[in-house]
Write a structure and sequence with these properties.
alpha/beta; two-stranded antiparallel sheet; 20% strand
Length: 271
Amino acid sequence: MDRSSLRPLVGISACLKENGRGGWHHSAGEKYVQAVIRAVGALPVLIPAFGPELGDDVAMAEALDRLLDTLDGVLLTGSPSNVEPHHYGKESRPGTAHDPARDATTLPLIRHAIDRGVPLFAICRGLQEVNVALGGSLHQLVHEVDGRRDHRSPKSPDMDVNYAPAHDIDIVEGGILHRLLGERRVKVNSLHAQGVDVLASRAKLEATCCEDGQVEAFSVPDAPGFALALQWHPEYKALENPVSMKVFGAFASACRTRAAARMAPMRAAAE
């Protein structure tokens, strides 16, 4: 992959998790950090799930805009937790885990990032967050929806089994994903219980599961910058997967472009 000497700064969304000893920690999986470093060629910056701790909506908006002014891209990670259903007008179903602090952080972050043209790449829970942030809704348990396959992982102790290709996706002809991959059908992994129900009006469908039509990818056409959401996990051993490298490569290019534009005034002032 063509990389300039300038490493962009890419924010990675974190979850707020109980550590088993009465305390809490903000965390993001190592595979996302490594994907940002190795597949994007960027410096990762963890975005804590600070939720409502910054104050009212005005204070939150100001904080998010200041944060985004320092970043060249945002990567939304997957997670065992799910977006709380009250954000899309539904009641919670039994057996679903939630992370309200992450919701309170990422949902406004997504809207601000898109509106400010900050490159946004969303994975698994991240896709679901983008859909909800833009006004869409979710199936809380896709495998209980008539006609849908079970999209959950095998829960094997072997991660290669869990992240193995699980099903084909049908890629929309002429869409961003089609242009990036040059193919109409590829096989992807599947590790999610929730998924898109009603697609947000600002979103454009990019791919569906060939077996049941479940949404697997969408873009945001009116976003000033790169904005792509995938339901599968391209970050797992990304460097070994040509499909993953193509989507990360597109995100990397967008991040480098923003980094160059963001740094240009500072470089000019230093000359």
